[in-house]
Amino acid sequence: MxxxxxxDTHEAWPVVSTTDLFRDxxxxxxxxxxxxxxxxxxxxxxxRLVLEHPGAVIVLAVDDDDRVLCLRQYRHPxxxxxxxxxxxxxxxxxxxxxxxxxxxxxxxxGLEAGEWTHLTSxxxxxxxxxxxxxxxxxxxxxxxxxxxxxxxxxEADMETFWAPYDDLLxxxxxxxxxxxxxxxxVLLARVRGLAGAA
Length: 198
Prior knowledge:
The chain is an alpha+beta fold and 198 residues long. The protein has 3 helices and 10 strands, in the order E-E-E-E-E-E-E-H-E-E-E-H-H.
């Protein structure tokens, strides 16, 4: 394949039927779709589970001393306390991902940033979900009021701390931290020359 064709493309296979397996008033749902290959009306149909997810943002907030704001948070499905970055759901219709990132940085860390860089957007697990994660680098940080945000459940137990970027990069490379959004954000910032040792 020529290099200029190295890109994802939009494609939607016909859905013959769909059934909700779980849906309530939260932002995620699970459904079962029966699909078939396009342009093959007589082809055998098959089922696929789809986790509906509105998408998320991840913020790599780096201060003037090249330190990264990190969180330490318990995640029940993995039964593990992870080193993470500020992050949150794109759960308001039509909200721009950068605005979501600004909100999450304010709510989770009490910070605002004067400089924002979109690092990339990725599909987290396209075999089961259309969730898109939007990665941002935040610089020129300042303290700001968290507004009316009230931490609940695991977030109420969340710890924040600062880690030198190069130490965090070393922890990523040697596998001591394993939260995928953190790993991607840290590596993207380094590869693009936006953080860490020159």
